[in-house]
């Protein structure tokens, strides 16, 4: 693994660790837009990383693939747990698997302003 790739991977890991909810997305992606709208409509603060607007976006997407096995966006993490994409987010919300009432209230009341990226 190259030094640059290690650095990007560490930045991704730090961003996931430092934020309650992270959405790695692309501005033009309809599923990314739906995921962010869903979180906004649910009053869940999140930290968006628009990888199509970054010079290292391709490296970030590769690091995410290496970490999760998911090639697509959005790529969503809640409390350091990989949720998946938009459909997975909806399923997790509906099943309350990751988003039980206590966790939702903690996320809503916590400041989600920390960021590594």
From TrEMBL:
InterPro entries: Glutaredoxin, Glutaredoxin_euk/vir, Glutaredoxin_subgr, Thioredoxin-like_sf. GO terms for biological process: cellular response to oxidative stress. GO terms for molecular function: glutathione disulfide oxidoreductase activity. CDD domains: GRX_GRXh_1_2_like. One of its GO terms (cellular component) is cytoplasm. PROSITE patterns: GLUTAREDOXIN_2. Residues 21-83 form the Glutaredoxin domain. PANTHER family: GLUTAREDOXIN 2, GLUTAREDOXIN-1-RELATED. This is Glutaredoxin. It comes from Lichtheimia ornata.
């Amino acid at each position: 693994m190259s030094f640059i790739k290690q650095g990007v991977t560490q930045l991704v890991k730090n961003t996931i660790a430092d934020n309650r909810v992270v959405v790695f997305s692309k501005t033009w992606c309809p599923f990314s837009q739906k995921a962010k709208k869903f979180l906004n409509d649910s009053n869940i603060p999140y930290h968006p990383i628009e990888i199509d607007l970054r010079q290292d976006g391709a490296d970030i997407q590769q690091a995410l693939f290496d970490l999760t096995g998911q090639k697509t966006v959005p790529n969503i993490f809640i409390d350091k747990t990989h949720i998946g994409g938009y459909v997975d987010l909806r399923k997790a919300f509906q099943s309350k698997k990751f988003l039980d009432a206590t966790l939702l209230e903690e996320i809503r009341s916590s400041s989600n302003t920390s960021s590594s990226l």
